[in-house]
Amino acid sequence: MKKYLGVDIGGMNTKVALVDENCEIISYALGDTPISGGPQAEIALIAEILKYLDISLDIVHSVGIGIPGPVDLKGVVHNPPNLNGWGNVGFKKLFTEYFKYPADSIYIDNDANFAAIAEYTIGSGAQADPMIMLTLGTGVGGSVLINGSPIRGENGFAGELGHIVLNPDGPRCGCGRRGCAEALISHTGIVRTAWEILRKDKGSIIWGMLDGEFGELSPKIIENAADLGDPAANKVLDITANYLGSLLADLINIFNPERIVIGGGISRWGDALINPARKIAVKNALKHLAKNVKIVRAKFYRKAGVLGAAIIAMKKHST
Amino acid sequence: MKKYLGVDIGGMNTKVALVDENCEIISYALGDTPISGGPQAEIALIAEILKYLDISLDIVHSVGIGIPGPVDLKGVVHNPPNLNGWGNVGFKKLFTEYFKYPADSIYIDNDANFAAIAEYTIGSGAQADPMIMLTLGTGVGGSVLINGSPIRGENGFAGELGHIVLNPDGPRCGCGRRGCAEALISHTGIVRTAWEILRKDKGSIIWGMLDGEFGELSPKIIENAADLGDPAANKVLDITANYLGSLLADLINIFNPERIVIGGGISRWGDALINPARKIAVKNALKHLAKNVKIVRAKFYRKAGVLGAAIIAMKKHST
Question: What is the C-alpha to C-alpha distance for residues A123 and A145, in angstroms, rounded to an integer?
Answer without folding.
Answer: 14
